Amino acid sequence: MTAKRATALVLASALLAACAVAPPVGDANDNPAWRVRSAQLAKIDRWQVQGRIGVVRGREAWSASLAWRQDGTQYAIDLLGPFGAGRVHVEGDANGVTLFTGDGQQLSAADADELIERATGVAVPVAALRDWVLGRPQAGVPARLQADVRGRLTRIEQAGWVVEYGAWQAQAPELPLKLRAEHGDVQVRLSIERWDT
């Protein structure tokens, strides 16, 4: 191979690699685009998503279809297929939460995190997911944030959890389509098929 040809191949490889690189990521606190985006996201308190959720803890795993409706502090979550059951419906507000199973059982608790842990044995941060699903940290809890040049969070480290975002919807306000949250041996994955805000 001639030196000229080898140089051309190296340059072509470098150009292809440059095209595959994700947008630069940095500390969100130093990112003016994140500050603007954060203010926009803070105004969203009514939304609905449809998609899938998967939870893994060690060798245990479950997944379900997900429909989540949030209206301020009130919410309703429908899960189809978790825990070997047909349907689970969760509804709650600032005063408490109740889980209804397809076979007529009912569980209540002070908050969704406690309820899901009692029902499944897995600590899933439902309260934090309410914010993480929008691409923002949970309010009032210290966090380390990384954002891309467009102000979209790429990583949240909060309350021992690491949240990473894998895809975003194209239309404004570019809400997340894929996120993964990990804490110890617990991993929660959300794949969102539809957003309504």
TrEMBL record:
It is a lipid-anchor. The keyword Acyltransferase does not apply. It comes from the Bacteria. Coiled coil: none annotated. It is found in: Cell outer membrane. GO terms for biological process: lipoprotein localization to outer membrane; protein transport. The keyword Ion transport does not apply. One of its GO terms (cellular component) is cell outer membrane. Its main location: membrane. Keywords: Cell outer membrane, Chaperone, Lipoprotein, Membrane, Palmitate, Protein transport, Signal, Transport. Monomer. NCBIfam families: lolB. This is Outer-membrane lipoprotein LolB. It comes from Plasticicumulans acidivorans.
